[in-house]
Structure formats: structure tokens, C-alpha cells
């Protein structure tokens, strides 16, 4: 897929079909973008599982924090990535090792790695990069 531009229908379909999101890089700090996006997604009715190894056993926005994706005990529709772009290849490898693959990997603003995207797409996972669901949702869904 061309990751320079996404058709609106592609993004809207992902946002409408997604129910459970693992948010990698979730922060308890209300000033951080990951915290604000997580709050937005929760308000829109998504189930959001915060992933942050430094905060296991705590909660973020009343959601229990998990240390890594392999520790999530339910199917994940989307992995929303708040990590540096150079962390994406290893994260895709971690995702591909899951027993049940997510349908989508969504890289937040500035999170783009075309080789990692190709690796994920080879496993049948849709990829969105350098976009924010909290920006796309109001634009596409309302």
C-alpha cells in the first residue's frame, strides 16, 4: 500500500470496525499526546488497553496497564503506536509473534517505517502510519 496517502474509506472502515485497541506507549501524564488520544478513544466507546512496561500494575484512565502485547488476554483489533519510528520494526516482529494477529497497526504522527509496514502487510495486517485516529475520527465519522 502507498503510505503517503490513505483513501478516506480505508481509514473510516478501520475506525468503524475497530472495537479493541492496544495503545503502545500509553502515558499516565495527562499532558502527553498518548494520554489525550487514549481519553478520546475511550470517550468514543473503544476498549483501550494501555501498554507500558514501566507502569504495569497501575491504571491509566481507569484501565489496567499491561507490560507487553503478549500479555493482553483478549483479541486486539488495532495496535496504536506511540513510539519512535525506529522502534516500529521490532514492534511489528512482536505483533507477528502473537497467537492472534490484530487487524491493524496504526502509527501515530511521525511514526513511519515502510519496511516495518511491508513486514506487517505480508502477514495480512493493515497499516496506517503518520496519522492520528483522534484527528481522523472527527473528520471521517463525526
From TrEMBL:
Residues 14-111 form the CoA-binding domain. Signal peptide: none annotated. It comes from the Bacteria. This is CoA-binding protein. It comes from Ensifer oleiphilus.
Amino acid at each position: 500500500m502507498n503510505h503517503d496517502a490513505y483513501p478516506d474509506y480505508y481509514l473510516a472502515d478501520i475506525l468503524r470496525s475497530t472495537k479493541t485497541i492496544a495503545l503502545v506507549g500509553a502515558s499516565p501524564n495527562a499532558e502527553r499526546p498518548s494520554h489525550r488520544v487514549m481519553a478520546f478513544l475511550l470517550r468514543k466507546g473503544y476498549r483501550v488497553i494501555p501498554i507500558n512496561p514501566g507502569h504495569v500494575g497501575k491504571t491509566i484512565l481507569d484501565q489496567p496497564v499491561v507490560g507487553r502485547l503478549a500479555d493482553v488476554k483478549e483479541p486486539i483489533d488495532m495496535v496504536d503506536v506511540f513510539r519512535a519510528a525506529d522502534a516500529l520494526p521490532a514492534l511489528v516482529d512482536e505483533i507477528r509473534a502473537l497467537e492472534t494477529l490484530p487487524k491493524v497497526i496504526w502509527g501515530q504522527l511521525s511514526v513511519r517505517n515502510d519496511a516495518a509496514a511491508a513486514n506487517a502487510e505480508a502477514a495480512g495486517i493493515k497499516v496506517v502510519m503518520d496519522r492520528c485516529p483522534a484527528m481522523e475520527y472527527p473528520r471521517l465519522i463525526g
